[in-house]
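Hi W., the FE2/S2 (inorganic) cluster complex you wanted:
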Amino acid sequence: MIVCLCNALTEGQVRGAVAGGASRPKDVYCACGKSAQCGCCTATILSIIREEPSRRAA
Ligand code: FES
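Structure:
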């Protein structure tokens, strides 16, 4: 699933960046070699950042 249309970032890429230590949307963009554009995906990326620790623990 595409999470960020501007940068064509997938959910898997975002989760990978979070697993690698990204803790802010800015970190996720940077880890993927991208940068923020319109910002519409910020809330979704924040949701993934918040849920990823519990997801990994399950
Ligand atoms: S949808 Fe992610 S920056 Fe625009």
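The domain at 2-57 is CATH 1.10.10.1100 (Arc Repressor Mutant, subunit A).

W.
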